[in-house]
Each structure stands twice: as structure tokens, then as C-alpha cells.
Specification:
single chain, globular, seven-stranded mixed sheet, Protein-Tyrosine Phosphatase, Chain A, 3 domains, 15 helices, alpha/beta, six-stranded mixed sheet, about 450 residues, Rossmann fold
Length: about 450
């Protein structure tokens, strides 16, 4: 089969493309802004990439067009379609489907699907669970919205009956406004946490809770729902009905509980010690992610002790507290945190690791929800443990300085990347930790900071 993927350079669609190619399909694709590293990864797999969404691509005549949720029926100011290829597909009556639907029909059929849902921690927990199953001989397939360092790839078909997938609540496609995860039909589902996000498609938290309950409805009676016992929102979700075995984690009365520091803790199951995790990963949030992965792995026959042993060698995911470099005793990190809760847990995790060392939080409000200013009031709370805060305000329609005013002299705001770098250079000292947080490329600020610090040192 020849499939042509619209929006191929997104993390999900790029992973789908890799799976399709591994399965023996001919894969081509297009996107706006075809550039490394995704373009290099896909071209190395023999996947032809086309820049833009020109209708001339109809000449490829694939068996199926697979449509990413970046594609819409939007029009430009002159009235012309933003995605002329999609208009041509519709006019021709050509076959098309969404990415999640194609994945469900072509990859997940007949598999025991383990799906990881939640506002935060999906990528990390999915990677943990895939690594646990891999290290215990189950040869899982997986699709992750990032690159697990242990595997070096974001997706593979695997050799067994298990498939681990990051289950996103964002909408499927312009013609299917259900959350992606309702297509996956998991037998094991992790509900990691649930807060308001994606303000562009959800009106309120209750709307997201309804989508999570749609996921719960798809889990069979012999399945397992692994749920964070600390989350009232998830209690409400299960309160709407659950027809599967439930295993909780996190709270003091949960089925799976952690005792000890995030880097070294005992796992208690039903109050009894069953495993010990000692690893190089920090943060209470990652401790909770580990409990979720252990509880899910147990459902497919992996003992907590074996899961804990595998987690000891877990190396995290690219862009999750990833050290980009150290110059003159100053360390620069890259992290994907963009929701206020994720920002707070990321800063707290680094604080627990580094003690009294100074943390300079460098933040870009880039997600759609943050650009809308929906959560601006939570920013001082989320950044409170940082010693200094630098925020890139370019392209926003709300007053960043006003939102952060309560933090006083700890905060500086810059309208462009160069201004932010200059502000950081004026304050940074040897031994500082520079934590850059964005769900985008942040204008390459990580390497630019390292180069600027090196240049300043050389000039001394």
C-alpha cells in the first residue's frame, strides 16, 4: 500500500510514518517547514518528503491519504484554501483517513494495547513502560511523542503481542473531533493526571473529563485502568462508570505507593514492599510516572521487582531535563514543560537535585493554551522556586510583565531571543543551572546561550 501523509513532520505523524515504512508500505508525505531533525529521520527511512500542501501532489495517486490534525478547511486572507491538497482530495472523492484511525486499523488490531493518557508525563511514562516491557523480554511495539534515549527512535512495530502508545486527548482531525485516544482500544490504560489544557478545543475541564471517560468506556472487562489516586478530576471520570479492574497509585491509600526519595524509593503494593527503584531520574512527578508504569506492566505479567530493575537503567526522553551542555560550571537544560503544573514540577525536580544552587528559569509561553493567556495567572506559582525568571514574550497578545508582576525583581521579560539571552548573560554566575522550558524549538536558545557564555568567558 502507498500512503501519503499530510502533516508528516509532527511527532505523532512522523512516528506513524516510521511504523508504516517498517511494515513494508510505501510512504510519502508533506508538511509546511520540512526541516531537521524529523526530515532527516524520515528521509533515512526512505520516505519522500514534499514541502507544502500543493494540490499537484494528487499526481502521486496513493492508495490512501492519511490526514494529520494540522490540516484544516481554513482560508487565507485572499480567500484561497490554506491546504489546497486537502480541497483537491475532497473534490476528487479520493480515499482519506486520520492518523489515529489508520494506526488502529493497520497496526493495533490484534495487539494488547497499553495506552498512557494524562495532561502531563505521557511521553516519559510511555517510554518507561515500553522500556520495562522490552527489558523483560516482551518485545513491545511503541509509538511515543518524543525520542526515548534508551531506544533512540520514537516508534517501532515490535516482535510480540504488546503495543505501548502515548494516548493524546487532542482532537483526531478536522473531520473527527474526538480525542485521538478513543481510536486505540487499550486493554491497559494509564490515566496519569488530568487538568485543564488545550483551551483552543476544550471549553472547560468537564469537557476533557468527558473525553477521558470515552477512553475508559473502550477498556474491556478483563482490562485494567491504572489511575492516579491524587487527582479529583480522575475520581470524577471513574465516577461516570468503569467496567474494568482499577489499580490506583500515588495517594497514601493507593494500590501502589512510593516510600522514599524520588531517586531511591520502595514500592509498596497493598501496603507490602514489593520492589525498590534506584535510578538517575529526579522529581516526584517521575516517581509517580514510575508507579504508573509498574502498575501497568504488572497487568501483562511483569512483576514490580522486575519492572523496578528495568527502570534502574531508564535514561529518560530527549527534551526532558536534557543537559545540552556545561560551560564555565554553568549548565544549560532543555525541557518540554509548558503547562503551569509541568513547569512547577520540573523546577521543583531540579531544586531537589541541586539544593541551594541557583536556578534560572527561562520560559517561552508557546502552547496554544499559553498563547491565549488562559493560564497566565498560574505562572508566578509555577515559577516560584526559581531564583531568577526570564520570559520570552514575543508574539503574545497578553501582558507577560503584568502577569508576573507579583514576582518582583526576580523576573525579566524580553521580546525576542537575543534580548532574553542578553538578560541572562547579565545575571548568570558560575555554578548556575539554566532551565529552558518550551514545547517548541525556542529559537535555538540552548546552543546560543552556551556559545554566548563561552564567548564571554573567552573575553575575560
Amino acid at each position: 500500500m502507498h500512503i501519503h501523509i499530510l502533516g508528516i513532520c509532527g511527532t505523532f505523524m512522523g512516528g506513524l510514518a516510521a511504523l508504516a515504512r517498517e511494515a513494508g508500505h510505501r510512504v510519502t508525505g508533506c508538511d509546511a517547514g520540512v526541516y531537521p531533525p524529523m526530515s532527516d529521520q524520515l528521509q533515512a527511512l526512505g520516505i519522500e518528503l514534499i514541502e507544502g500542501f500543493d494540490a499537484k501532489q494528487m499526481a502521486l495517486k496513493p492508495d490512501m491519504y492519511v490526514i494529520g490534525n494540522v490540516v484544516s478547511r481554513a482560508r487565507l486572507l485572499d480567500g484561497s484554501p490554506k491546504f489546497p491538497l486537502m480541497e483537491a482530495i475532497l473534490e476528487a472523492g479520493a480515499p482519506y483517513t486520520s492518523g489515529p484511525q489508520w494506526l488502529s486499523e493497520q497496526v493495533l488490531q490484534g495487539q494488547h494495547v497499553l495506552a498512557v493518557a494524562g495532561t502531563h508525563g505521557k511521553t516519559t511514562t510511555t517510554s518507561m513502560l515500553a522500556w520495562v516491557l522490552d527489558q523483560t523480554g516482551l518485545e513491545p511495539g511503541f509509538l511515543v511523542g518524543g525520542v526515548p534515549l534508551n531506544f533512540g527512535v520514537s516508534a517501532r512495530l515490535g516482535g510480540g503481542q504488546y503495543f505501548v502508545i502515548e494516548a493524546d486527548e487532542y482532537d483526531t482531525a478536522f473531520f473527527d473531533k474526538r480525542s485521538k485516544f478513543v481510536h486505540y482500544r487499550p486493554r491497559t490504560a494509564i490515566l496519569n493526571n488530568l487538568e485543564f489544557d488545550h483551551a483552543d478545543i476544550f471549553d472547560d475541564l468537564a469537557a476533557i473529563e468527558r473525553q477521558f471517560h470515552h477512553l475508559v468506556r473502550t477498556v474491556p472487562g478483563s482490562g485494567r485502568v491504572v489511575v492516579n489516586g491524587l487527582e479529583e478530576s480522575l475520581t470524577r471520570v471513574l465516577g461516570q462508570g468503569c467496567w474494568s479492574e482499577v489499580r490506583s497509585f500515588g495517594s497514601a491509600v493507593s494500590d501502589f505507593v512510593a516510600e522514599g526519595e524520588p531517586s531511591h524509593f520502595q514500592v509498596l503494593q497493598s501496603g507490602k514492599p514489593v520492589a525498590e527503584v534506584q535510578w538517575a531520574i529526579g522529581g516526584v512527578h517521575n516517581q509517580l510516572n514510575a508507579l504508573a508504569a509498574i502498575a501497568a506492566a504488572e497487568h501483562v505479567g511483569v512483576s514490580p521487582a522486575a519492572a523496578a530493575q528495568a527502570l534502574a537503567t531508564f535514561e529518560n526522553v530527549k527534551r526532558r531535563m536534557e543537559v545540552r551542555g556545561t560551560v564555565n560550571g554553568i549548565t544549560v537544560y532543555d525541557d518540554f514543560a509548558h503547562h503551569p503544573t509541568a513547569i512547577r514540577t520540573t523546577v521543583n525536580g531540579l531544586r531537589l537535585q541541586m539544593g541551594q544552587a541557583r536556578i534560572l528559569a527561562i520560559f517561552e509561553p508557546r502552547s496554544t493554551t499559553m498563547k491565549l493567556g488562559t493560564m497566565k495567572a498560574q505562572l508566578p506559582w509555577s515559577l516560584g522556586e526559581a531564583d531568577l525568571v526570564f520570559c520570552h514574550s514575543g508574539g503574545l497578545g497578553w501582558d507577560v510583565s503584568g502577569a508576573l508582576q507579583s514576582m518582583g525583581l526576580k523576573v525579566q521579560v524580553g521580546e525576542n531571543i537575543d534580548e532574553v539571552i542578553a538578560q541572562v548573560l547579565a545575571q548568570v554566575k558560575q555554578g548556575d543551572h539554566l532551565l529552558c522550558m518550551s514545547n517548541g524549538g525556542f529559537g535555538g536558545i540552548h546552543d546560543k546561550l552556551l556559545q554566548a557564555i563561552q564567548a564571554a568567558q573567552s573575553a575575560c
